[in-house]
Structure formats: C-alpha cells, structure tokens
Amino acid sequence: MKSIKAAGLIFANPFIAASGTFGYADSCLDFYHPDLLGGFVLKGISLEPRKGNSPMRIIETPSGMINAIGLENIGIERLIKDKIPFIETLHSVAIANLYAETKDDFIELAEKINEIKRIDAVEINISCPNVKSGGMQFGVSPEMTENLTKNIKKVSSKPVIVKLSPNVTDICEIAKAAEGAGADALSLINTISAMIIDTKKMLPALANVTGGLSGPAILPIAVRMVYQVYEAVSIPIIGGGGISSVNDALQFVMAGASLVSIGTYNFISPASIPVIIKQFNNEVKKTDYSYSDLIGIAHRQHFT
Amino acid sequence: MIETQGIIVSNKPAAGSIHRIEVETERMELSKPGQFAMIGIPDEGFHLNRPFSIYKQKENRLTFLIQKRGMITSRLIKKSVGTKLRIIGPLGNWFSDAPAVIVAAGSSIAAFGDFIGRKDSTIFYGAATKDDLIDIKADFFSTMDGSRGFRGNLIELFMTKRKQIDKRNLYIAGPAAFIKAFRNRIDDDLANRCCASLEAYMGCGFGVCLGCVINTKSGYRRVCKDGTIFSLKELLL
User: Fold this and answer.
1) Domain ranges, residue B35
2) CATH no. for residue B227?
3) Interchain CB contact of A57 with B (< 8 Å)
4) How does residue B147 score in pLDDT terms, banded at 50, 70 and 90?
5) Which of B4, B209, B214, B220 to mutate: most A Cβ within 10 Å?
6) Same structural domain, B171 and B196
7) Which of B39, B65, B91 delimits the end of a domain?
8) What is the ipTM of this complex?
9) Which DSSP string do the residues of A237-285 spell out, in sequence order?
C-alpha cells in the first residue's frame, strides 16, 4: 500500500493505536514492533502527574467494556525524561494526547510539546468522560471547542488533531467548530458515557459511577458519526470505535476515515494487530479502487 | 511474555466447581512460581481475557485450575478437548522459590503449584468442604464444615500453628478481602515477611489499561504488572 498523507504527515499504513490503549509506545513490544503501525497516540499526558480514579476502574459489558481510569499519567516532565528516548528510536508517526483542565494549562502543555522533536502531532483530548473538569467539558460545546483549538493552533508548531466526544447532540457542529478554528484533523470517537449497576451490591459497579464504553458495542455508532462528520468537514478523519477486524476498519474508511484507530482491541489480542494490517492491505488490493478512492466511498455509491 | 494459541488437551473436574484444564500452547516461555496467563476464547466474540494462575507448566503445556465464577469461567469449564484458546503469558512477578510457608484458600492454591510436594515448604490449604479441596498433599487442611482437617477458617487454623512458623517466607493468595482478614489477624513479625498474590478484575493483564490498580503505600499500583505479588506491608487494603 502507498503511504497516506494526512494533516501534513505521512503514515506508512492507516492504522493508529488509540490513546490510553498503547501506553507510551512501549506496551506492545512483546507482541510486535510499534513501527508496524502507521502511527500511535501516547497515553493522555498532563502538566503534572495524575493519580487517576479509585478502583473499580473497568468492567466488561456485552461486546465491550466501560473504563473510568481518569487519565492516570506520569506527567510531561517524566514523559520527556523517561519515555521520549525510546520513542526517538521509532519511525512511525508519534502523536501526543494532551489533557488539561484549563485553557492556559493546555497552552503551556502544547508549548512544552513543541520542544519534543520526535512528537509529530498533538491530539487534544476534549472528550474524556472520566474527569471532573476539562476533558469532555470542552468538547460538548462548539464555542469552547473552537476557542481552545484556536488557542492551541496559535502556539503549537505541530499539526493539531481534535479528538471528539460522541456524548453530544450534534457531533457535526463540534467537528465544524474544530475545523473552523484550524484543526488539521479530527479523531473520533472517544468513549460513550455509560454505567453498570452491580445488582448484588446495589451500587454502581465503577467507583467513578460512570465511565466510557468502548469495544465492538460502539462500532455502529462510531461508523455513523464518521459518516456524518465526513459530510460536514473537509479535514482528514481518524476513525475508530471497536475495531477488531479488517472489515471493521474498512467500514470506517468507507464512511470517510483517512486513518483508523485501534483501541480496546489492543488489550484483547495485541499480536493479531500486525496480521489485521497485512490482511487489510490485501483486501484493499482486491478491490478495484486505490486506498484514497475508498475513503468515503460509501457516500458516492448509489443504491440500485 | 507472548500471545499464542492454546488447545485444550484435558479438562476434568478437580474439586467442587474447580476444573483442571491442560492447554498445549504453540510456544510458551517458562513461567516462574506464581505467574499467570490471560485466557480468552477467540471464537466466541468480544470479551476481555481472564487472568488465571499457571498452576503447572511442562514446556509448552500449561495447567490451570479454573473455578466457575462468571460468564467466561462457566464456558471454559464446559469446553471440550480441542477447543482453541487465546493465551497471553507468562505475566506478573513471581515468588522466590526459596522454602516457604503457604496459606491458600480455595482456588488460590493455583498460585502455588510449584510448591506442592516440596519437603522444605509448608502448605496450609482450606476450603468450604472436603469436596472443594483438590487432591493434593498439604501439611494442614481446614474446612468450614470440618469434613477434612481443622473445622473453621483457614486463618484460624494458621494461627493455631503460629508457634511452628519459622523464618521462612510467608506466601498468601486470594481476593483482597481474604488478604485483609489475614493481615488483620497476624502479628507484625509475620506481616513483615509476608508476600500476597492478589486477585483482580483485569482489562489487559500486561500493564497497559491501568484498570486493575490497587492502593498501596506508594500510590496506585497495577496488580497485573507491578504484582500480582506485593509485600503485604505495602498494601493499603
């Protein structure tokens, strides 16, 4: 497959490991080399280390799981000191996922990331459902999305990807706000706000009460959102939500995603991801279309 | 640590709701005492893999003691020989194989397969009834109904033998509530040299999802990757 150009970056293949499912690009080493991916998004990083939420943090659900990790991370200083040296040895596209509670902290974080040469792009996390402030607070309002994206674009020397929340009335409105503010690409979807009640304990199963639903259960919702956003904007889309097979990935591409992200499946069968990438390339070859023609093709086919 | 395919070569009831399942993997690193593997059933749709102690290993063949508890364990114990499994392992840290005193309640005996039959180690093993005890050679048994060995709680049995516990390592395994009850009952001298292998609800099993953390004196630690074995005095249960 020819490499893919998106957001000013070159990806060897369309597969991206999603933030929070890939650690700091060091979690997959026993299974496969990160350079087999088109790119990867690092675990969400904040200015200061974060402890995360109390346990229970995860629970399985039909065809999926709910997590409420709460953005536990090592903070930007340790990222630079302990993790970037390894990431510097890699070649696939490295994206940092930024999380802050305020606009000013987001700006400071983006400025610190500017200093890290090996980071190719930033993904701004305005869609985490598991933190009290920041996160989804920004991402549910078109005005706040636009304002924050604009401010980060002003300071960031790297392409800016905005990760959208599905927990909104109209995702296209948010997508357009991000595009209008200069976002270089959109990433969707983050997890869907959800909860489980433990009927034996008569309590919410997760300590955070609610969490984010991921896995195959959310795939049709994510495909629908990518399909709609593709019609609303003209910047590239990184599409994902429950991908665990070649056919799943193809659905996102045909809905309009230039790149696809694998999240929860990194927990389930990491070793099969390079196999999926290889099979995907073969499947694309089998069609009469180039990869770029397949992007959004479902919009151009006529019902007969 | 690797991910590989395993095939069930034997599945037999071991005691109560526990089955002894042997799996021949395509390849597997040699596990150390107390390590575990994640098991999934790839042909049955999406589910999280489940963590199980590697009870015994001979080259690529792993033996697990699997107790029926929820959806996946209920399915696993019914699987016939030839069923394909997804296996990720060996995972977690491990027990030193120096002589030890072991306290294992119910299915947690699975964490101590390598110590069973060793003359230099002492095993306390308890369950609800004699039918819930797998057929192994232990030094002291307890059952709640008194059908074998000491009648009552395993921790109480252990405390009756407190004077015989020398300076060997002390190992315990089980759910957090059992470990907490044990810690609250024993003296500081024992607590200071006790290591506990924790059970936890896990997402990935290899340290990336951060779903299985527990509270310790040094903050949240991942049961799967920083454990499953922790120094008892580190745990804030």
Assistant:
1) 2-91
2) 3.40.50.80
3) yes
4) very high
5) B209
6) yes
7) B91
8) 0.95
9) EEEESS--SHHHHHHHHHHT-SEEEE-THHHH-GGGHHHHHHHHHHHHH
